Automatic annotation (TrEMBL):
<keyword id="KW-0812">Transmembrane</keyword>
<protein>
    <submittedName>
        <fullName>Signal transduction histidine kinase</fullName>
    </submittedName>
</protein>
<keyword id="KW-0808">Transferase</keyword>
<keyword id="KW-1133">Transmembrane helix</keyword>
<keyword id="KW-0472">Membrane</keyword>
<feature type="transmembrane region" description="Helical">
    <location>
        <begin position="6"/>
        <end position="23"/>
    </location>
</feature>
<keyword id="KW-0418">Kinase</keyword>
<dbReference type="GO" id="GO:0016301">
    <property type="term" value="F:kinase activity"/>
</dbReference>
<feature type="transmembrane region" description="Helical">
    <location>
        <begin position="35"/>
        <end position="55"/>
    </location>
</feature>
Length: 56
């Protein structure tokens, strides 16, 4: 696995999570739920990729 791509992915996902947390009052509830679920899945995948890269 390419570590540069992994680092970029982790940074982008964490920024997405931060943006969602900071703008949670401005988003409609229906969109907020979908975006939060997407962000949680992406953050979980980022941590799985980090652990995989450490073990491989």
């Amino acid at each position: 696995m390419n570590n540069e791509n992994l680092v970029i992915y982790v940074i982008v996902v964490l920024c997405l999570g931060a943006v969602l947390v900071m703008s949670k009052d401005k988003m409609p509830p229906r969109l907020k739920r979908g975006m939060a679920l997407t962000a949680v899945i992406m953050i979980a995948l980022a941590f799985v990729f980090i652990i995989y890269s450490m073990l491989a």
